[in-house]
Write a structure and sequence with these properties.
The protein has about 450 residues and is α/β, with parallel strands linked by helices. The protein is about 45% helix and about 10% strand. Strands 1, 2, 3, 4, 5, 6, 7 and 8 form an eight-stranded mixed beta sheet that branches. Helix 1 (about 1-15) packs across helix 6 and helix 10 crosses helix 11 (about 255-270). The longest helix has about 40 residues, at about 340-380. It is globular, with a radius of gyration of 22 Å. The model is unreliable at about 5-10 and about 30-45 (pLDDT under 50).
Length: about 450
């Protein structure tokens, strides 16, 4: 085995596995759609306005098909949950963010809406995606992994495209509700990479032409199993300046660490210091998929952005569901003097890094949501009555402080120890037995229905 590993290392030094970039240059990337909250007030195009005073946000964690099936179960149970006077619960979803396995469900729902729930199980959850990839523990795969990755993104991207996305580009997602955020990891700048118009504008590229399947493949690209997905930058061709908040945050040593790191990454991309952005699984920097929301809000210049002012005035309830299919501690080496070693050692180290980043991301997200709510209330209560009535679209009594933001985590451990143990035993893989898929989907629905914060949210509706 040692000789084989030595040979694989030697071959890995000779082999070079890499992906070709798919993004195209643009002198004025998506200039008509990139907007700040100030621009929205003057009528710039963007996602359609929120349709009620009650909004739901969703973040789907990583975890392969296990995560996708759990997220599917949450959405399916929401589709079956009646409300007293607000119509379908799914109609209130304003934003959906996904990372790694969760990005598959997020992107498909972003494209198809509730219709995605009718065929996602057959099109993805019960399919054998792993058979299309190089997954065996062979000398060739080990050498390819050491040379960049056992797989390029081609097979994964093509499979996603054939079974789910059918050549859809981000032109089909931009300007729609829910706003869809796909998260990957920029491994050079060590920050989340958001597939958004703003990020692509930093690279002087137009996200409208970029394939959704390629973004989902990047979000799911586990290091070693896949070579990094590549985004090429074209700073010499760009006429669109970076937003002011980016350059300011990059220079501000007192800016929130996540925001400053993201802004510095964008300035590095625009400066030409980074010619090729290398992307791996989004779970490396945030396995919960909430960093995109944190960054989006932190970069706003108004107390209510990215909401429009009329949306912020009329909003009363916002619930953000963090759907977490992450595994708990595993292995029995904690009960012995020896270990961990080998596979257990590698898995334990990766789990520590992923979980630590997720915990930090969740903490930053919770603080951002609280601060955002307080900023909106202060702004609303400072409006003159005539302006408040104009934005509300009506007169009459109004409680400017009637605004509640709630974060609820939906996870295995909320279903009791025995059931959580069974769910945690399901592997992180692109292919699962149908019975495991159905077990996970039921668990997602049951965890949602049993969540006290979600039940309070329903009763307040």
């Amino acid at each position: 085995m040692l000789a084989a590993l030595t040979l694989a290392v030697a071959l890995g030094g000779c082999a070079s596995v890499y992906n070709q970039p798919l993004n195209a240059p643009s002198a004025a990337p998506f200039q008509g759609i990139i907007r700040s909250a100030d621009a929205a007030e003057s009528g710039s195009p963007g996602a359609p306005g929120l349709r009620s005073d009650t909004v739901i946000g969703l973040a789907f964690s990583g975890g392969g098909t296990r995560a996708a099936a759990f997220a599917y179960g949450v959405l399916d149970r929401m589709s079956q949950t009646p409300t007293v006077r607000h119509g379908q619960l799914l109609d209130h979803i304003g934003v959906i963010s996904g990372v790694s396995g969760g990005s598959i469900m997020a992107a498909y729902y972003g494209l198809k809406g509730p219709a995605a729930l009718t065929d996602f199980r057959a099109r993805y959850l019960t399919q054998d995606l792993m058979s299309q990839l190089n997954t065996s523990l062979s000398l060739g795969n080990i050498s390819r992994a050491l040379g960049g990755g056992a797989n390029t993104d081609t097979a994964l991207r093509d499979w996603f495209n054939t079974h789910l996305f059918h050549d859809a580009t981000f032109a089909s997602l931009i300007g729609k509700r829910p706003v869809t955020i796909i998260n990957a990891s920029d491994i050079y700048n060590r920050t989340p990479f958001l597939f958004s118009p703003q990020t692509f504008a930093a690279a002087c590229s137009d996200i409208a032409q970029y394939p959704v399947a390629a973004a989902v493949a990047a979000s799911s690209a586990v290091p070693g199993a896949f070579a990094p997905v590549v985004i090429e930058t074209f700073p010499e061709q760009c006429e669109t300046p970076l937003p002011a908040w980016v350059t300011e945050a990059a220079k501000n040593v007192d800016a929130p660490p996540l925001l400053r790191a993201y802004a510095r990454g964008m300035t590095d991309i625009r400066s030409g210091r980074v010619k090729y952005v290398k992307l791996f699984d989004g779970g490396l920097t945030d396995n919960l998929g909430v960093s995109g929301i944190t960054i989006t809000r932190a970069g706003q210049t108004t107390p209510y952005g990215p909401l429009r002012p009329e949306e912020a005035v009329n909003l009363r309830r916002l619930m953000f569901l963090v759907v977490d299919a992450g595994q708990g501690p595993k292995g029995d080496w904690s009960r012995t003097l020896e270990g961990p070693a080998g596979k257990d050692l590698f898995g334990a180290v990766v789990d520590v890094l992923v979980d630590a980043n997720s915990q930090s991301s969740y903490t930053a997200f919770a603080a951002t949501m609280k601060s955002w709510r307080d900023s909106i209330v202060k702004w609303r209560c400072g409006l003159k009555p005539v302006e408040a009535n104009r934005l509300r679209g009506r007169g009459g009594p109004w409680n400017c402080q009637d605004l509640k933001f709630t974060i609820a985590r939906i996870s295995f451990d909320q279903l009791g120890p025995d059931r959580a143990r069974s769910l945690n035993a399901v592997p992180t893989s692109f292919t699962l037995p149908p019975e495991s898929v159905d077990e996970l989907a039921r668990a997602g629905g049951d965890a949602l229905s049993a969540n006290p914060a979600f039940q309070r949210f329903l009763s307040e509706m």
